[in-house]
Design brief:
Elements: H1 7-37, E1 45-47, E2 50-52, H2 54-73, H3 96-130, H4 136-143, H5 148-157
Antiparallel strand pairs: 1-2
Helix pairs in contact: 1-2, 1-3, 2-3, 3-5
């Protein structure tokens, strides 16, 4: 037995409501990425001159990525935002698969941002280490780091 949403709710929601749901799913993807890649939800910070966007940046990038993907390749691609005749009524549909796709695109978009920041943190870490010689204890501490943020903290203290 399948249930379907009332057509009145979907038609009242319109393309803006669908876009909001897609953006929300992308934002959840950004939150998931922020939580799993940074070991928690962090605030935006600047670390040794490198901007780390934190959870807020991941949420924004995830939501924007999901909207762009939905508008280019999903059911949002067929929506006319400005039409010549205001009386025509478009059929708007939003399937669960579109929301699941928006969640995945949100994770992927936020992951891209995270990877760019991690790359910059590791580059800065290498610059710090290249100027110094490390003791065996410092090498061991550096070896135990599991995120680029921790690597930079360790090498900045050396």
């Amino acid at each position: 037995m399948t249930q379907s949403a009332s057509p009145d709710i979907i038609s009242m929601m319109g393309w803006k409501g669908c876009a909001l749901l897609v953006a929300s799913a992308g934002a959840v993807g950004g939150i998931l990425n922020a939580y799993f890649t940074d070991h928690g939800l962090r605030r935006p910070t600047v670390m040794n001159g490198i901007w780390c966007p934190g959870a807020i940046g991941n949420i924004i990038v995830g939501a924007v990525s999901a909207i762009i993907s939905w508008a280019l390749y999903g059911s949002g691609a067929g929506v006319d935002i400005a039409i010549a005749t205001a009386n025509t009524r478009e059929v708007i549909s939003l399937r669960l698969s579109a929301l699941a796709g928006a969640l995945l695109v949100g994770i992927a978009g936020a992951r891209w941002l995270t990877n760019e920041v991690d790359k910059a943190l590791l580059d800065e870490s290498v610059r710090h280490v290249a100027r110094k010689s490390l003791s065996p204890e410092q090498n061991e501490e550096l070896h135990g780091c599991d995120t680029p943020r921790k690597v930079l903290k360790v090498v900045a203290r050396v």
